[in-house]
Each structure stands twice: as C-alpha cells, then as structure tokens.
Specification:
The chain is α+β, with helices and mostly antiparallel strands and about 150 residues long.
Length: about 150
C-alpha cells in the first residue's frame, strides 16, 4: 500500500503560549511539592550513606517545610523553604529551620518565556544559577546545594 508524502510546509509553526494565573499557581505549587519530596528523600539517602549523619525533614504547614542535618548529633546545616515570595510568585529559602515569614537567603522566582514556565534564582547566596531556567529538579538541587554546602567544606 503506497502512502502519500505530505506536501512541503514550514517547520516554523510554534505560537506564543499564554499562561493563566491558574497555570502559574499550579506550576509553583507543583515545584514546591516536588522540592519537599526531594529534600525528604535526599536527607534519608544522606543518612544512609553516612553513619554519623542524621537528617530531619518536617512539613511545617501546607506552605513550609524545614530540613536539619546533624553530624554526630550536632546541628551542621538547616533551612526552611516556603512557598511564596516577597515580590511575587516563587519559593524562598532561609538558612534557619524556624525562620520568620520575611527572613530569607534565597528566592526562586516564577518566570516564563514564550513557551515554558520555569524558576529563576533571582536572589541567592549562590549566584551561579542566576538567570537560568530551572526545572523542578534544578530548583530543588539549587536549594539542596545551599543546605549541604557547610558539610562539604
């Protein structure tokens, strides 16, 4: 059976996507939930691989969680991560497990181009990811690197 080849056409068919408030809210909520699971699993794996390390993950409420890393029973690193930013939609990082609502040391802002929603490190102690289009995994790794940095140096 012979098939007919399609006629010539342009490959330039991409149109600008419009993102609604619901799309933006869902994206940042999904990113936050992913990050919470990422931290919980990473703390467990860190403790499994290092017998002197204990990790504690605590979901504080629907919009906040904390992580603490103990080495030989002493606090070595801690943070709290909160859904929502001071300057719009985003996810903030504080280097304290019990940080007050306005205290933060890093902020991932919700951004978009003409095709995708993504997170960007608009304010961070680790400027290397600034202006990158971070996926859920990239955003979680960005904050994980901030948490674990004191144990790696």
């Amino acid at each position: 059976m012979a098939t007919t080849a399609p006629g010539p056409r342009s490959s330039n068919l991409r149109l600008r996507k419009q993102f609604s408030d619901a799309d933006r809210d869902q994206f940042v909520e999904d990113a936050f939930d992913y990050m919470a699971r990422y931290f919980e699993n990473s703390l467990q794996e860190l403790a499994t691989r290092n017998h002197t390390i204990e990790g504690r993950y605590k979901r504080l409420d629907a919009q906040r969680f904390s992580a603490v890393i103990y080495e030989a029973g002493q606090t070595r690193a801690q943070c709290s991560i909160r859904l929502g930013g001071c300057f719009g939609k985003g996810i903030t990082y504080s280097a304290s497990a019990d940080a007050a609502g306005n205290s933060y040391h890093g902020m991932l802002s919700l951004e978009h181009d003409d095709q995708h929603l993504y997170l960007s490190a608009s304010m961070s102690m680790m400027g290397g990811d600034r202006d990158q289009q971070l996926t859920f995994d990239g955003a979680a790794e960005h904050y994980w690197a901030m948490l674990i940095e004191p144990l790696q140096h």
